[in-house]
Amino acid sequence: MNRRKLGQCAAAFGLAALLAVAGCGRDSGGSGDSAQPVGGGKASGDITVWAMGTEGEKLSVLADDFMKENPDAKVKVTPVPWDGAHDKIATAIAGKQTPDVSMIGTTWMGEFAKTGGLDPTPAEVAKKDDFFPGAWDTTVVNSTSYGVPWYVETRLFYVNKDVATKAGVTTPPKTWDEFKAAVKAFKEKGGATWGVSLQPGGTGSWQTVMPFVWQSGGEVLSGSAFALDSPQATDAYAYYKSFFTEGLAPKDLPQGALEPDFVKGKIGAFVSGPWHIGILKDQGGAGKYDLWHMPGKASATSFVGGSDLAVFKDAKNREGAWKFVQYLSRPEVQVKWYQTVADLPAVTKGWDDASLKGDPQLSAFGDQLKDAKAPPAIPTWEQVAAGFDAEIEKLAKTPQSAQDTAKAIQQKAGSIGTGA
Amino acid sequence: MTAIAAAKPPKRRRGLRRAATAWSFVLPFAAMIAVFVAGPVLASLAMSFTDIRSADVRDPLGVDLVGFANYAKLFSDELFGRAVGNTAIVVLAGVPLTLALGLAAAIGVNSGLTRFRSVFRVGYYLPVVTSIVAVAVVWRFLLQPESGLVNSLLRLAGIDGPNWLASTTLALPSIIAMIVWRGLGFQMIIFLAGLQAIPRELYEAAKVDGAGPWRQFLHVTLPSLRPTLLFASVVGMIGLLFVFEEPFVMTRGGPLDATTTVSFQIYSQFGFGNYGYAAAMSYALFLAVVLLSILQFRLLRSDDER
Amino acid sequence: MAVTVLAPSPPATQPATAPRKAKRGKDRVASIALHTVLIAGLLVMISPFLWTLLSAFKPDREIRTVPPTWWPQHPTLDNFRELFERLDFPLYFTNSALVALAVTAGNLLICSATAYALAKLPFPGRRALFAIVVGNVMVPVMVTFVPTFVLVSRLGLVNTYAGLILPNIALAVNVFLIRQYMLSLPDELLESARIDGAGEWRIFWRIVLPLCRPVLATVGILTFLGSWNNFLWPLVVATTEDHYTLPVALALYSVGQNQTQYGLLLAGSVVIITPIVVVFFLLQRHFVQGIATTGMKS
Fold first, then answer.
1. What would the pLDDT profile of C155-189 be if each residue is shown by its tens digit?
2. What CATH number corresponds to the domain at position C219?
3. Nearest chain B Cα distance for residue C75, angstroms
């Protein structure tokens, strides 16, 4: 065994030496990526598309319409499971086995754009102003847009009507103080055990905390450095922590307890996106709640997520791919898509349609979308977010102060870097 | 014998032919390893000496060599240190427990007193095979603070049970219990194969000497199972050093990193795209496995030689 | 419990009936005790599987209730119906079966042959090869994932059955397991066959393999299980649906970006686990077959 280990070590060093000799090493110069134009006319040839989940299943509906308009084109949709989709796209890029177009989660854009595997968005295909600003920003890496927002989601407060009425809260609070007072009233007068359920750290809690940072006027980046310990951010952490220290939010809600407890009135409010409409309906909660816009300080900002569409550099049919993406961004197609799978349009004009405008719950989301942000599309965001989540967990569950949390988050983020 | 030896071809040719025959057995495997394993292993090892990230996959040679920097970073990585500690606890507690319970189950199922042997065999192996998602749901129910089975039973005894999975001190033992429960079926299968190899005559002889079931176990079963035990404990240890699914699905490594393991950290780092660092972590783990296995072999075998 | 005085050891010619009767009583109590313990253990062991099976027939809402219900309160076939409607089940099942069977058969052949040489045939390079085998077992699987995919794509095997099967067709851990078992095979048996003029391959097929049924059954099950449940590799290798295996296809509809459809997930789990249980039942009786030559001790 010893001889073999030695042999392996030798091989490894040999390989490394080879790499060194082969002139491996990073390019010091950054290569700017400029968008190449796309020709006019109809699309032709095979266009391979990857899409996850229900979108993957139902995209053929829109693909058929596209193919009627472009008879020489053949759109082939391969549905991909969400579970593992990130790995699948990453390895496909590594092995140069990508399709022409893929749906990509908004938080993955930074990482995939950095690989150089995505094609910059041509100006003819999409204009920034057609989309919700927060959504468009998810496609922008180093001032270049790599793809187009497809559908969006944002977060609102779901509030139990009975609890609110009993608590005497009649209008949605507009400021932080009003919000805190309302939540207190939920607990003291509204009969709820917990005024509000806020995620106490853990995976994805940044999506609940960052809105407060943005509301406070803070940002993730200031220039090219992290600003997660700014006074505004620290204020937000302190505000968030106060819900836990004042006994208004639970530190350890067992999995699966949220919806039943909310419907029963044990929990006064919680934060989530449009998918909870369906879940609450399933649990007998339809009509029992109101949707509240985010409260505000400097602004009343929420988180915007969803998915973008991107074309790959290794695409075999670049022209066809972008034409398909352009098609999917038409307002009327976005509306049809909403009617097919209930995905909210990323294109603002799509919201003029009666099916969205007429629905009060959806209009609430549409309203919030005008003031919703996403973290900057930096390649290291997932790792920074994990560090963020870990510190927020300490903020919520231990005596760690807001200042210490801010310092820790900033330090972690700094050591990870923005990956630029 | 000499007559036969004289009829055989000269020694050198015999040796060559034997070697060729042996290699004919080994060739398919060696070929597969050479094609599908050697390259990726060497490539990933090389990765660990660079600062390669997921952003570099289209141009893997365009990365910087950093020597042992990734490995050195492991020592200052607090989270990794925590993971190492947790993994060590899992192994030290989990290996003896899975071995003991797996052996007990194998003996019970194998003994001449049971009927429905196949049902037991399948049943005890089922957790190994059941989807982790389903296992997680059931275990979460068991451990729920208010309505869970464990705390309900404790309440009958007058004890107020804690919130198992949310406690920084109790989460890891709870997960270990789940891992042991899930893994003992696998050990049971290994021991069943080993028990089959013990000739019945040995037991008969022991019975004639007046040995009861316990002494038969000590003096016939255990010694005969020694190679199986060694093997099962090495395989069990390797499995536990790589533990990932249970903490991932149950607690995501929490609360407050109380249940994170080395494999979980490796998965995390690959997820973040830090391929170079993750590769270094993987090979550090590999080194640990090799050293611990050697240690185990030395400890358990030297007993044998005596 | 009959506690008759045991007759003194009877002479070999006389059947010992009196002591046997007393022993039977003791046996029965021990048997009942053992059965109780084993059955209690069994119930604990199969509870998640049972819950999965029962819950696959519940609507999503009931699956999410806390505390969980056991027997379905609103039994429904909807989950299965939806699964089979949306899923091209025969296609994915065939793919999974094809790949799993090929991988299992390949492993059984290649790894047992290798194990035999490593266990019983001295040859130059044997120690080195064994070290490689053991070393390979100890490398964490995750680290070679991306390089293996890049290799497979360079070989042009992406989205092919070969790409799904070949990287897994000769697993070092199986060589390790089988060799361990083969070490205990008596050398005299093999020697006498050689003296009788049998070639090594003939010895391997006719004598060694039949003796190895327990370990081959074990390896067969473990390999089949691993291949059948493998999710990440087929996910990444298959670029069009027609090469998806069952776990990949089942994940398509059950896990969403922000929520999980538990009904479909559990129905999928039942669908996936059933062939495994069948295969296990079929193979597990081979665990019982001891080495036929128990009379011969080395």
1. 999 999 999 999 999 999 999 989 988 988 899 99
2. 1.10.3720.10
3. 18
